[in-house]
């Protein structure tokens, strides 16, 4: 089975694309001199492309060229390929309000959640639920390569200027769940690979991404109702792949936190031996469109 790999940044220097409309679009890709017909591509893995490589001296011309590349190249690539995941589906599902609502409708348990820019509403939510967790809704950096992890919040933290600062943008607040362990569940079509993540430091107990050295892992099976809810949610969102995060309370309840349509999975395979890469390869060779 042949594989071709390219990034949006390869266009137009290393990648040339031509589409001719007949009964349908006949699309030809040329990557470093290698020519491939899009009709021969059985599956496409969409994984965090970077910006198009249009480089023009004038900023306005570059903005125009990039927009044309997105409309032309992007539009042609979307015409006939079985995606894992379809870029538009991934973009839609990335919105936290969308995925949290989809999870609730699918029967998954979601912690009490508030998304607001109103300091008074945030203070009332804290008074109602006690200890909260603040979590960023994107992977964007506030600058200088900083990463924003989850942060515990109490009513005291929302007093005065710190609470008033909530008015500066939108914030996601959730009732804090103190788990027995976390779970990273990687779903590929109908297959699920679940790993329990045990935190052994205070920082990792709040957000395990902040201290990977303090983590240990076990392979587990998700409860039947959770597995069913995941399948229903992914079907409704039109996703074939997802990296889902859960917290499991000491009494055994599973709380859904988020799904990342482009989430990391290789380190889970390395730590546990779960055969995620084989599942992804199989899904690309035998495409299964979302229901």
Describe the structure.
- It is a single chain.
- The protein has helices spanning 59-77, 87-93, 96-105, 119-129, 160-164, 202-206, 224-237, 266-272, 276-285; strands at 15-21, 25-31, 34-37, 44-45, 83-84, 113-116, 132-135, 151-153, 171-175, 181-188, 191-199, 215-220, 241-248, 254-260.
- By secondary structure, the protein is an alpha+beta fold.
- The chain has a 5-stranded antiparallel sheet with strand order 12-11-10-13-14, sandwiched between helices.
- Helix 3 (96-105) packs across helix 7 (224-237).
- The two termini are 26 Å apart.
- 25% of the residues are buried.
CATH topology of the largest domain: D-amino Acid Aminotransferase, Chain A, domain 1
Strand order of the largest sheet: 12-11-10-13-14
Q: From the alpha-carbon coordinates, what is the Rg to the nearest angstrom? A: 22 Å
Task: Count up the domains.
Answer: 3
Secondary-structure element string:
EEEEHEHHEHEEHEEEHEHEEHH
